[in-house]
Design brief:
mainly alpha, single chain, 15 helices
C-alpha cells in the first residue's frame, strides 16, 4: 500500500511575513463569512422555495440538502487540489464557479435544476477550506492559532447570519433575490481577493489520485478521527433536521410567523454558538469525555423541549414560542460543544496530514447535515413536528452512545 503523501513546505510557508493580523485577517474572516452564507440559507427558505417550484413537503428538504451535499463533495474532491496546484488561482476559479451557480439559481426554471445548481454552488464554496490554510501560511507559527481562530470567527458569524439574512431578503423581495444578493457579494469578494491573495505553490510527492486515496487510509488508521467525525455527523443531522423543519412549523398556527419573524427566531436561536469557548477550555483541561457527554445530553434535552413547545395548538403561543427558542439555543449549544471538542481532538493528530484530516472531519459532518436536511421533509410529511424532533433525538442518542463507547 502506498504511504500517505508527505507535504513539502513551500516558499510562502518558510518565509511567512511577521503576521497576517489586521486588514488581512479581517479580509479572510469576511471572505469565509460571505461564502458560508450559501450553505445554510436554504434551511430557512424551504418553506417558500418548495411550493414555488412544485416540491411536495416530502421533497422540500432536498433544497436544504443539496448545497450541504455539494460542500461535502467539494471537501473530498476539490480541497485536496490545494496540495497540488497554486492556491490563489484555485480559490479564484472556485469563487467564479460559485458566482455562476448563484446566478443560475436566480433563474432556475424548476426544482430539479435548482438542486443541481445548489449542489455545484456548495461544492465551489469549499474554497473556504483552502483560504484558511493560506491565512495560516501568511502567519508565523507563534501567531497561527490566533489568526486561524479570528478567521474561523468570520465563518461562525456567516453561519449565524445566513438564516435570518435569507429570511429577511426573501420576505422583502422573494427567495430568488437572496441568490442575486449572494452573487453580487461573491463578485465583489472575488475582485478583492484577486488583488490581495498571495500565491501559494505547495508541492507533494504524489499525484491527485494517490492524494485522494490517502484520505481513506487516514480514516482507517485514526480511530479518534473516525469517532469524532461520526458523532459530529450525527449531531449535525439533528441540527439540520431542526432548522430545516422549524421554518415550516413557525409558519403554522399558533405562531403564524412570516419570513421576518422566522428571521428573528433564527437570530435568537443562534446564540448557542457562544458556547465554543467554554467547551474549548474544558477540552484543554482534559475534560473532553465529560464535556462531550454533556453536549449530547443538552442536544437531547433540546429535542424534548422543542417537541413539547411545537405541539402548541391554541393559546399561550408566546410562551410556546419562547420555549421553542430556548430549545433552539440548547440545540446550538449541544452541536457547538461536540464539534468544538471534535476539532480540538483531530488537530492533535498527525501534523503532516492536518489539512486532509480537517477536510475529512468537515466533509463527514456535512454529510450528516445533508442527511438531516433530506430527512426533514420526510419526517414532517409523515408525522409533523413531533416526528422531526423524534428523528433528531434518534441521531442525538446515537451520538451519545457512540461517545460513551469511545476510548477517547
Amino acid at each position: 500500500m502506498s504511504p500517505i503523501p508527505e507535504r513539502i513546505p513551500n516558499e510562502l510557508e518558510e518565509e511567512a511575513p511577521e503576521t497576517a493580523a489586521g486588514p488581512s485577517t479581517l479580509l479572510f474572516a469576511i471572505a469565509t463569512g460571505v461564502i458560508i452564507l450559501n450553505l445554510f440559507a436554504p434551511q430557512t427558505l424551504v418553506g417558500v422555495i418548495g411550493p414555488s417550484l412544485g416540491f411536495s413537503e416530502n421533497g422540500a428538504g432536498l433544497v436544504a440538502m443539496a448545497s450541504l451535499l455539494g460542500y461535502a463533495a467539494g471537501l473530498f474532491f476539490l480541497v485536496p487540489l490545494a496540495d497540488l496546484v497554486e492556491n490563489r488561482r484555485l480559490v479564484l476559479r472556485m469563487l467564479v464557479s460559485a458566482l455562476v451557480m448563484a446566478v443560475a439559481a436566480v433563474f432556475a426554471p424548476n426544482g430539479w435544476s435548482l438542486l443541481v445548481f445548489l449542489f455545484l454552488l456548495g461544492a465551489a464554496c469549499s474554497a473556504i477550506q483552502i483560504l484558511v490554510p493560506i491565512a495560516a501560511a501568511m502567519t508565523p507559527p507563534e501567531h497561527r492559532g490566533r489568526v486561524i481562530g479570528n478567521v474561523m470567527s468570520g465563518l461562525m458569524v456567516g453561519i449565524l447570519l445566513s438564516r435570518p439574512l435569507a429570511s429577511l431578503v426573501a420576505d422583502i423581495w422573494g427567495w430568488r433575490s437572496f441568490y442575486a444578493v449572494s452573487a453580487a457579494a461573491l463578485a465583489l469578494l472575488t475582485a478583492v481577493l484577486a488583488l490581495r491573495l498571495p500565491e501559494r505553490r505547495p508541492l507533494v510527492s504524489t499525484g491527485y489520485v494517490a492524494l485522494i486515496a490517502s484520505l481513506w487510509q487516514l480514516l482507517r488508521d485514526e480511530p479518534v478521527l473516525r469517532v469524532r467525525a461520526f458523532t459530529a455527523a450525527l449531531v449535525m443531522a439533528s441540527f439540520s433536521l431542526f432548522w430545516t423543519a422549524v421554518a415550516l412549523r413557525l409558519a403554522q398556527s399558533p405562531f403564524s410567523l412570516d419570513q421576518a419573524g422566522i428571521a428573528i427566531f433564527a437570530l435568537v436561536g443562534a446564540g448557542g454558538a457562544a458556547a465554543t469557548s467554554p467547551f474549548g477550555r474544558m477540552g484543554d483541561r482534559g475534560w473532553t469525555r465529560v464535556a462531550t457527554t454533556v453536549s449530547h445530553l443538552i442536544l437531547l434535552g433540546a429535542m424534548a423541549l422543542s417537541a413539547w413547545a411545537g405541539e402548541a395548538k391554541t393559546g399561550h403561543s408566546v410562551i410556546s414560542l419562547v420555549v421553542l427558542g430556548a430549545g433552539a439555543v440548547m440545540l446550538d449549544v449541544g452541536v457547538t460543544g461536540d464539534q468544538t471538542l471534535g476539532r480540538r481532538a483531530i488537530n492533535l493528530l498527525r501534523p503532516e496530514a492536518r489539512g486532509r484530516i480537517n477536510g475529512l472531519f468537515v466533509g463527514i459532518f456535512f454529510l450528516g447535515g445533508a442527511v438531516g436536511s433530506a430527512l426533514a421533509g420526510t419526517a414532517w410529511s409523515w408525522g409533523g413536528w413531533t416526528a422531526v424532533c423524534a428523528a433528531g433525538a434518534v441521531f442525538g442518542t446515537a451520538a451519545f452512545l457512540t461517545g460513551l463507547a469511545a476510548r477517547s
